[in-house]
Amino acid sequence: MIVDTQNFMKFSDEFEARFTEMLTHYPTRRSALVPTLLYAQDEVGALTDEVIAELAQRLDLTELEVRNVISYYSMLTTKPRGKYNVQVCTNIACMLRGGEELLDHCKKKLGIGHKGTTEDGLFSLEEVECIGACSWAPAAQVNYDFHENLTNAKMDELLDEYKKKGTQ
Amino acid sequence: MPDVTLTVDGKKITAPAGSLLIEACKSVGIEVPSFCYYPGLSLQGACRMCVVKIEKMPKLQTACTTTVTEGMIVATDSDEVRQARKAMVELLLGNHPLDCPVCDAGGECELQDMAFSYGAPESKYTEAKNHREEQQWSPVVYFDRPRCILCYRCVRVCGEGMDVWALGVQNRGVSSIIAPNQNDHLDCEECGMCIDICPVGALTSGAYRYKTRPWEMNHVGTICTHCGDGCKTTLGVRCCDAGAEIVRGDNRDKSGINNDFLCIKGRYAFDFAHHKDRLTEPLIRKNGKLTPATWEEAFELIGKRFREVRDHDGGSAIGVVGSNRTTNEENYLLSKFARAVLKTNNVDHHRTADFPALAAALHGKPGKTASMRDALNAPAILLIGNDPTNQHPLLAWQIRTNVRLRRAKLYVINAAPIKLRRQASGSALVPAGAEAKAVAFLGGDDSLLDALVDSQVAGGLTREAWIALRERIRGEQNMVIAFGSELRGHDIERLVSFASTLTGAKLICLGDYANSRGASEMGLYPDLLPGYEPVARADRFQKEWGKLPRETGLSLPEMVEAAKAGKLKALYVVGSNPVGRLKVDPFVLSKSFVVVQDMFLTETATIADVVLPAANAYEKTGTYTNTCGDLQLVKKAGEISNTKPDFEMIVRIADAMGCDVSGLVPFGSGTHSDMGQTRGAQSGEADRHAVWLEAHNLEPKMTPFDPMAILDEIQRVVAGYDVSRVNLLAGNDQHLEIAESGASLIQQPELIDPANDDLFSSGTLGRYSKTLNSVFENKSAESEVAAD
Ligand code: SF4
Ligand code: SF4
Ligand code: SF4
Ligand code: FES
Ligand code: FES
After folding, report:
1. What's the pLDDT band for B539 if we cut at 50, 70, 90?
2. Does some domain include residue A77?
3. Hey, are the CB atoms on A68 and B179 less than 8 Å from each other?
4. Amino acid B581: pLDDT
5. pLDDT, tens digit, for every residue of B384-396?
6. Does B410 lie in the same domain as B325?
7. Domain that holds residue A8
8. Is B173 on the interface with A (CB under 8 A)?
9. CA distance B165 to chain A (A)
10. What is the Å distance from ligand 2's center to B435 Cα?
11. Which of A18, A41, A72 is the last residue of a domain?
12. Does residue B16 sit in the same domain as residue B70?
C-alpha cells in the first residue's frame, strides 16, 4: 500500500482489477463490501483507518457501517497481525483429539496468548471455532493454508518452517 | 387493497391484505408485545417478543414481520407463546443491570412492563453480567450499554428517519453493542430521536438524566418556541422555588403535526427559561443606571411617558416593535394597542419571510396553501431555496419520511448543495440569488435559461436538463411547493401564477421563528392591520377598535432614522432585540424613551429606560400560527415568579395610560349563559367541562389578562382564523385559509432579514440555552481539532 501525499489510498493493480470485477457481481455497490475488505486486508495487512475511509467512500457507505461489518467477522481485523496467523481449532472434534493441548503448546512455544502477536511480528495466534476440517482433527489454519492431524511435534516443525520462510 | 379475514384468539377479524399481523391485532385491540418493531421504520425481527402461534406453521412466528393471509388462525396468548416470551425476557435480562430504581426510564420503560407481564422471578443464568460504565457520547446523548436490549430502534431512526446514520451495531451475538460514529463519541444532529425511541433507559439525555422520575412531573403538551414549524412538544414540569421548572421535553404525545419528530431545540432547548440571567424584576433607568423597581412604579412611569408623548408629539412620535415569538393574542393586542391607544401605525417586527406577498398573491384563491401535514402526504414536493434540514427540521423530516415511505418525488432548486438533495429525484443548483430566475423559468420565461445554465456552478444543469426538469415538475399533481425567503415580493406572485397552472399545487412560505407567520397575520406592520388589511382601508377595524390613524406608519429602519432626527420620542419593544439582531445602532436611541419587555438583558434592553421581565411562550397560554399557517394552542407549562406575560404587561400599560381596558380586551363576556346546562352528559371531568365551556364561549373571561378573550375577537375579525374552537382547545392543529385576507400590498422586500439559524442556534433565545451552547462549543472544538 502506498499512501500518497494527498492521503488517497493506492492499492495494487491486482486489487483494483478484482474490485472492479466484484462490483459487477451485485446489484448495489455496498454488497461488494465483504470480499473487498478481505482483499484489502490481504494486501495491507489490516483494515486501517485509511482503508476504512477509502472503502466507505468507494462503496457509498459511512465509515461506521464499514466498521460494523468488520467487527462482525472474526476473520477481519483492524489491527495488524503477525505475518503468519496461526488459528488453532478447539471446537468439538478437535477438542476431543487434543486441540486444546495443541493451543496451549502454541501459546508456550510462541510466548503469546489468544489474539497475541510475537514481538518480531512473525506470528499471531488465535483460538477459533470449527474450520471444517473435523475429519482430520485436530486442525489448524495458517493464513489460508490448512494443516491437519496435528501433534505438538508436527506443530513445532510447522512453526519452524514458517519462521524460516518468514525470516529469509 | 382488499381485506383478508383471519382468526386471532378465536376472534374473526379483517385487515387490509398486506398488513402486518401485529398491526392487524392492534387494530382490534389485541396487544402483541414488541420491542424492535416500530411503525414507519424498517422491519428488524430482532427481539422475538412478538412471537405468536400460527396454525400450520411449524415454529412460533414473529407477528411484526408476518403479513396477514386469508384464513390464518393465530394464537397470541397461548401457554406456548407465553413461555416463549418469558424465555425472551429472561435472555434480555441476562446482561441487564436491573437498576430501575435509578434509571431515567423507570416508570415508562417497555422492558419493565414486559418483565412485569412475562418475567420470571428467578433467572437460570449464573454467568457474570457484561458490564460497561455509562458513556457520554455528546453533550446531549448518554449511553448505558448494559441496559440496551439491542432492538436497533435507535440505529434505524437515526439512519432511516434522520438520514444521519450516526449509530451502528458492532460485534456479534451476545457481544453486540450499539456504537457511535466517532469511536467514542457522536458527530450528529443531536436530535435526541434515538433517546426518545429507546424502549429502555440505555440512551438518556444530558438534559434530563437523573433529574426526576416520570411520575413526579406534570406533562403539558404545547408548541415548540423555536423555529417556524410548530412541533408539539410535551414538557415535563416540576415545582421549584421560582415557580415551575421545565425538566424535560419530548414527544410522547404523537398527535401533533410532528408525530414522532422533534429536533434538538424542541426537545432540549427549553433550558433558556431557567437561565440564571433571567430577569425577574422590572428595571428603571435612574441616574443612568438600570435599577430594580416595583411593577407599579414601572407601569406608572411608562403610562405617563407614553401618554405625554402621544398627547404632546402625536402618536407618530412613538414606535412599536413586536416579536416573532409572542402569541397571536399578544401580537394582535399589541397591534391594536399601538393603533387604538398609542395612535400610531409605526409598528414593525423582525421580518423573516414575505408572508404579505403570499397573501396578496393568493387573495381570492382559496385552498392554495399546504399544511405541515400535507408535506408528509403529498405525492410530490418542490423546494425552492432554504435549507430545511437546518432551518425547518420538521419540514425536512416530513419530506424525508414522505419520500421514504410513500415514494414522493422531491425536486430541489437551491443555490447550495443542501442535505435534502439526497432524497431528491430531481435537483438543480443555481447561482446564489438566482432562485427567482428559476421560478420565472418554470413559469415559462425561457429567456432566463442562459442565466441559469451559464453559471459555472458545479452540479448545475444543462439547458436540456433544465427543460426536462421543468417538464417533470409541470407533470406533478397535488404538489407541495415550499420556498424560502430567497423569494419575495413579485417573485412570489410569479410562483403563485406558475403554481396555479399545475393541478392541485399548494404553497408553503418558510419564515424563521415560532410565530413569524402569526406576527405577520396579526398586523405587526406599519401599513398592514391584522389579516393583511391595509391601514388605508381600516374601516372594519375602525368599527371594532375606535378611531385609528390612517397614514402608513414607519418601518423599523425608518423609525431608526426618525430617532436619529430626534422625531421618535418613544419606542416600545416587545420581545424583540433589534439592536442585537438587526444591527440597529444603540446610540441612535439614546434620546428616545425606550421600553423593552424581554426575558433577558439583551443588547436592546441594556439601552432601555424601562425593562419589564417577560414570561416566554412556555409560560403562557395562547395560539401560534406556524409557517404553513397551521393554528395551534400554546399552553402554559413553566413559571418563573415575578415575570409577566407580554399580554398582561400591554394591558397594564394601557391601563396606566388611562385607557379603558375593556375596550382593548373584551373581557367580562360569556358569563350570562346558563352554566347549569353543562352538567348532565358533560359533567364529571373537569377538563372536558372547561373545554366545552370555552368552546361554546361560555367560559367567563373574568380578567382583562385573559388571552382567550382576545382570541374571541381574533376569530371574529381576522380573516381565516374562524376555525373550530373545540379542535383548537383539544390540541389539534388547524390549517388557516389565507385567501380571504385583505388584498395586501407588496411590501418592501429588502426589509426581510432571514435569521439563518441552524440546528444549534435560535436567535437571541438560543444564546441562553445551555444545551445549544454546549453542542455548539463541542462542535467548534472538534472542527478546530480536525483542522489542525
Ligand atoms: S441524537 Fe439524533 S442524529 Fe444523533 S445519534 Fe441520536 S438519532 Fe442520530
Ligand atoms: S440503545 Fe435503546 S434503542 Fe438502541 S438498541 Fe439499545 S435498547 Fe434499542
Ligand atoms: S423543528 Fe422547529 S418547531 Fe420542531 S422542535 Fe425543532 S425548532 Fe421546534
Ligand atoms: S472441530 Fe476443529 S475443524 Fe471442525
Ligand atoms: S417485535 Fe417482532 S421481533 Fe421484535
Report:
1. confident
2. no
3. yes
4. 84
5. 999 999 999 999 9
6. no
7. 2-72
8. no
9. 8
10. 43
11. A72
12. yes
Q: Which residues' Cβ are closer than 6 Å to ligand 2?
A: B 148-154, 178, 197-200, 202-203
The mean of the pLDDT values for chain B is 92
pLDDT for res B394? 98
In this complex, is the C-beta atom of A143 within 8 Å of any C-beta atom belonging to chain B? no
Is there a single domain that holds both residue A111 and residue A137? Answer: yes
Distance CA B62, CA B32 (A): 10
Residue with cell 403554481: B499
Question: Among B165, B171, B180, whose Cβ lies nearest the Cβ of A72?
Answer: B171
Q: Is the pTM of this model over 0.80?
A: yes
Q: Pinpoint the alpha helices (H) of B14-165.
A: 21-27, 79-92, 110-118, 153-156
A65 touches chain B (CB under 8 A): yes
User: What's the confidence (pLDDT) of residue B675?
Assistant: 41
Q: How far apart are CA B712 and CA B353, in angstroms?
A: 27
Statement to judge: residues A66 and A7 lie in one domain: yes
> Nearest CA of chain A to the CA of B39: how many Å?
24
- Helix or strand (DSSP H, E) at B703: none
Q: At B83, is the pLDDT very low, low, confident or very high (cuts 50, 70, 90)?
A: very high
Distance CA A51, CA A47 (A): 6
Q: Does the residue B65 lie in any domain?
A: yes
Q: Are residues A68 and A133 in the same domain?
A: no
A29: contact with B, CB 8 A cutoff: no
Q: What is the three-class DSSP state of B293?
A: coil
- Please indicate, yes or no, whether residues B142 and B82 belong to a single structural domain of this protein: no
For residues A106 and A84, is the Cβ–Cβ distance under 8 A?
no
CATH code: domain of residue A22: 1.10.10
Who has greater pLDDT, B686 or A145?
Answer: A145
- Same domain for A57 and A103, yes or no, is no
Going by C-beta distance under 8 Å and a sequence separation of 6 or more, which residues neighbour residue B223? B230, B231, B232, B233, B514, B617, B624, B626, B632, B633, B634
Name the residue type at position B124. K
Residue among A63, A64, A71 minimizing CB distance to B171: A71
Range of B498's domain?
Answer: 356-510+752-757
**Nearest bound ligand to the CA of residue B157:** 1
- B25 touches ligand 5 (CB under 6 Å): no
- Domain end position, chosen among A72, A98, A128: A72
Gap from A161 CA to chain B (nearest CA, Å): 34
Contact A71 B166 (CB under 8 A): no
Closest CB from A62, A63, A67 relative to B170: A67
Chain A hits for B169, CB-CB cut-off 8 Å, are: 68
Report percent pLDDT > 90 for chain B.
80
How far apart CA B383 and CA B370 sit, in angstroms, is 13
Q: For residues B368 and B489, state if they share a domain.
A: yes
